[in-house]
Design goal:
Elements: H1 12-22, E1 29-30, H2 47-59, H3 72-83, E2 92-97, H4 99-114, E3 119-124, H5 128-137, E4 140-145, H6 156-163, E5 171-175, H7 188-201, E6 204-209, H8 223-231, E7 234-240, E8 253-259, H9 265-279, H10 286-296, H11 298-330, H12 337-340, E9 345-347, H13 352-362, E10 364-365, E11 371-373, H14 381-392
Parallel strand pairs: 1-10, 3-4, 3-5, 5-6, 6-7
Antiparallel strand pairs: 2-8, 7-8, 9-11
The chain binds (2S)-2-hydroxybutanedioic acid.
The site of (2S)-2-hydroxybutanedioic acid has 6 residues, from loops.
């Protein structure tokens, strides 16, 4: 049977991770996969997470199954974090998933189940795995313009022109904050215009929010998703705890299906539960439980928010240093956008050959579309990167 298996396309981000591991050069710099690293290159367990895990070890007396949608307390805590008071709880069906990717996957399956004709509009570019999973699930994708190669900001006119083609069968996938891979984001006026267009067309938004707290702050980063969820009749939200709680390997995420008609909640919930049961049965619990403890304990929550703020501001500092350093070595302002971008990533907008040159000649690893992970830098490596960028002719 297995002789019929075909080679699957490699995931570019994971492939790069492997290449980096195998590179023996001591000076190598990893700006690839989206994992936060501190100034010493470590991805620490956050203080509040560690404290909650210790408490959990003391008090947990069973590892029996939770529910198909996970522990409802996790959903409540995450809904509070992502949506605040924007949507009445009775309108939200939610299920814990294995990470944000799990939420994305379950959302696509729900879309397919609800409307086999649905197409999903995705930004060009988007996180490559969005396209890969959509393709795997068998959903037609349509791209909308997003990144302006000149300004390295959002091509808002292009985006609106392309979204004018959506129909009431379609879903429009957006990044709630910290767009991956570009780092370029809409402002609230632009979000409102997108919402108005979707309302006019009757299309359904799906928000992927994987970096809340990495951009302009925990509340600020949630403004777009809250505006969307409170304005449209129905939407989907895939939220990840991997980055903002640093629980990458615990696989902690939540999928929300929102209908402003609360009579739909029970069917929405049942469908989410059903999909979990088909795909993996009960979602992982450890990360979700720890996140719940952190969010529900005022002291742990305050410490977590403070540490997340340190992470955010350190990345902003690196962005500013990088923009200033590039201005110095290139003698031009053309890299000023790096300080304007938000989140973990910036897309430099350079040709793949130059990205390859950076890797081969300078042992600097970034994704082939010239996405760099700002958190992979520190104050010492910023000048090295700036020098190399200019040297390879980016
Ligand atoms: C990334 O974009 O690097 C992260 O979301 C990690 C991943 O799974 O690709």
């Amino acid at each position: 049977m297995f002789e019929t298996l075909k080679e699957q396309p490699a995931d570019k981000i994971l492939q790069l991770m492997q290449m980096y591991r195998e590179d023996p050069r001591e000076t190598k710099i990893d700006l690839g996969v989206g994992v936060y690293k501190d100034a010493s290159g470590n991805t620490p367990v956050m203080r509040a997470v560690k404290a909650a895990e210790k408490q959990l070890w003391e008090v947990q007396d069973s590892k029996a199954y939770t529910g198909l949608a996970g522990d409802p307390a996790f959903a409540d805590a995450m809904i509070g974090l992502v949506l605040g008071e924007a949507v009445a709880r009775e309108n939200i069906a939610a299920a814990a998933t294995p990470g944000g990717t799990g939420a994305v996957r379950q959302a696509f399956e729900l879309i397919k189940m609800a409307n086999p004709k649905a197409r999903v509009f995705v930004s060009d570019p988007t996180w490559p795995n969005h396209l890969s999973i959509l393709n795997y699930v068998g959903i037609e994708t349509v791209t909308y313009r997003y990144f302006d190669g000149e300004t390295r900001g959002v091509d808002f006119d292009g985006m609106m022109a392309d979204l004018a083609d959506v129909t009431s069968d379609d879903v429009v996938l957006v990044h709630g904050c910290c767009h991956n891979p570009t780092g370029a984001n809409l402002n609230l006026t632009q979000w409102q215009a997108v919402i108005d267009l979707l309302l006019e067309k009757g299309a359904t938004p799906m928000v992927d929010i994987a970096y809340q707290g990495f951009g302009d702050g925990l509340e600020e980063d949630a403004q777009a998703v809250r505006l969307i969820a409170s304005s449209v009749p129905e939407c989907l939200i895939a939220a990840s705890c991997s980055k903002n709680f640093g629980v990458y390997r615990e696989r902690t995420g939540l999928l929300m299906a929102i209908s402003n008609d609360s009579s739909r909640k029970s069917l929405n919930q049942q469908s989410l539960n059903f999909l979990n049961r088909q795909n993996f049965s009960f979602p992982p619990d450890h990360g979700a439980r720890v996140v719940t403890m952190v969010l529900n304990d005022p002291a742990l929550r305050a410490d977590w928010a403070a540490e997340l703020e340190e992470v955010r501001t350190s990345m902003l500092g690196l962005r500013e240093q990088m923009a200033a350093e590039l201005q110095r070595v290139s003698g031009s302002d053309r890299f000023g956008f790096i300080a304007q971008h938000r989140g973990m990533f910036s897309r430099l907008g350079a040709a793949p050959e130059l990205v390859q040159k950076l890797r081969e000649d300078h042992a600097i690893y970034m994704v082939g579309d010239s996405r760099l992970n700002i958190a992979g830098l520190n104050t010492q490596t910023v000048p090295i990167l700036a020098e190399a960028i200019v040297k390879v002719g980016m």
